[in-house]
Amino acid sequence: MNKDQFRGSHLYSAIQLVMAIAIVAALCGCQSTYYSVWEQLGKHKRDLLRDYVQDASKEQQKAKVEFKDALTRLKEITGFDGGKLEEAYRAVEKDYERCSDRAASIRSRIKDIEDVSAALFKEWEKEITTYSSDTLRSSSKSKLRETRQRYDALHTALQKSSDSMTPILARLKDQALFLKHNLNAQAIGALKGEVVSIEGDIQKLIAEMNTSISRADEFINGLQ
After folding, report:
1. Does pLDDT of 167 surpass 70?
2. Domain residues of the chain, as ranges?
3. How many CB atoms are located within 10 Å of the residue 196 CB?
4. Using CA atoms, how far apart are residues 205 and 161, in angstroms rounded to an integer?
5. Distance between CA atoms of 208 and 150, rounded to whole angstroms?
6. Are 213 and 61 in contact (CB under 8 A)?
7. pLDDT, tens digit (0-9, with 9 covering 90-100), for 72-107
8. Closest CA to 216 of 80, 77, 57, 96
9. How many CA atoms lie within 13 A of 49 on its CB side?
């Protein structure tokens, strides 16, 4: 191993160690240590907030596709004309599970955003008091106020779309269970009215997600 390889391997090991400490700190609930470790890697709270918002936006993009797929599957089943009903039920069940997992992932991203934004704003408020320049202090206060306003709009949109998933998931689960216990043409026919109703809910959810994604883009651009 040459010197460059030796230095590279040790740098990689050091980064792995620091990241491991960050993960342990997060699991133990010690946020200050968690953020401190990330700062050692060159990622400050502002950078983490940007990353978390981007992650949430990507998760919502995926959720849009998965909820649309679930709706498409239900529509196909209501027009089911013979074939293997057991396979149809399994497909609906998997759609529900995918949507449920995605919703849980989005809720987790929102929690990350809430935690790091609270820490960032607290730190920002504290640092504002250390300015000796009235002009710079006033400018920083104004920037903080604008950032908070954009954050509030983003958080409201994120929470609204996340909350809208809950009743839709409950209805998807109901339909999967109904099919499980009633694998016959009569049961399929009984779902038609439900599918028409849930279609409107999913379209509304997708519109809310689009709004949330737009708010995320606006917020990220404002952090540049």
Report:
1. yes
2. 1-43, 45-223
3. 12
4. 6
5. 17
6. yes
7. 888 887 776 555 677 777 888 999 999 999 999 999
8. 57
9. 25
Q: How many CA atoms lie within 13 A of 61 on its CB side?
A: 10
Compute the distance between CA of residue 96 and CA of residue 174 in angstroms, rounded to an integer.
10
Distance between start and end Cα atoms, the chain: 41
Q: Please choose, from the candidates 216, 118, 95, the residue with its C-alpha nearest in 3D space to the C-alpha of residue 159.
A: 216
Alpha carbon of residue 118 to chain centroid: 17
d(CA 60, CA 80): 30
- Asked if 95 contacts 70 with a C-beta cutoff of 8 angstroms, the reply is yes
List, in sequence order, the alpha helices (H) in 29-133.
31-40, 45-78, 85-128
Q: What is the C-alpha to C-alpha distance for residues 23 and 37, in angstroms, rounded to an integer?
A: 9
Within a 10 A sphere around the Cβ of 194, how many other Cβ atoms?
15
Supply the DSSP symbol for 200. H
**Mean pLDDT of the region 111-136:** 95
* Total residue length of the chain: 224
Distance CA 23, CA 17 (A): 10
